[in-house]
Amino acid sequence: MRGARVADIGCGGGVVAIAAALAGAKIVSAIDIDPRAAIVARLNAEANGVVVNAITADAFATPAPEADIVLAGDVAYEAVLAHRALGWLRLCRQAGCQVLVGDPGRRHLPLPELVPLAHMRVPDFGAAGDGLADAAVYRLRDAS
């Protein structure tokens, strides 16, 4: 992340964008279709002493961002969204961005398009039993 331009897509509260800023990214954009998410991401960034450019937009309807790294978290929770996200993330990859996807094992995740980088068990308020869910981080494959 150090020195990179980072775009966090579907940022929610901005946790991933904030982590990128704390890891030394030089420019961080946190983008979400929900205007409340952009507000929360900005407030959370301020509370953590970092600068994050919080934007309300449908990222999947825009050109690839001017970024070195695109981070997308939990964008496969429904089939239509997963399809739109994958098409747009491919455009980002073609534009030269490194694309990383974090996911808690959603059934619409396009696994053949992804290279697993890390697996972990993470707290999930909806998880049964021990309150942990399986999650993973992937890299989008290069176009063949």
Helix proportion range: 25-40%
The count of strands amounts to 7
> How would you characterize the largest beta sheet?
7 strands, mixed
Structural class: alpha/beta
- The ordered string of helix (H) and strand (E) elements is EHEHEEHEEE
Query: Reading side by side through the largest sheet, how are the strands ordered?
Result: 3-2-1-4-5-7-6
Key features of this structure:
26% helix; 7-stranded mixed beta sheet; 7 strands; alpha/beta; 144 residues; single chain
Describe the structure in your own words.
The model has no long low-confidence stretch (mean pLDDT 92). A seven-stranded mixed sheet has the order 3-2-1-4-5-7-6, with helices on both faces. It is α/β, with parallel strands linked by helices and 144 residues long. Helix content is 26%, strand content 31%. 33% of the residues are buried.
What is the compact description of this entry?
The chain contains three helices and seven strands, in the order βαβαββαβββ. The chain has helices at about 15-20, 35-45, 80-95; strands at about 5-10, 25-30, 55, 70-75, 100-105, 115-125, 130-140.
Sequence-ordered SSE layout with sheet pairings:
Blueprint: E1 5-9, H1 15-22, E2 27-32, H2 35-47, E3 53-56, E4 69-73, H3 79-94, E5 98-103, E6 114-123, E7 132-140
Parallel strand pairs: 1-2, 1-4, 2-3, 4-5
Antiparallel strand pairs: 5-7, 6-7
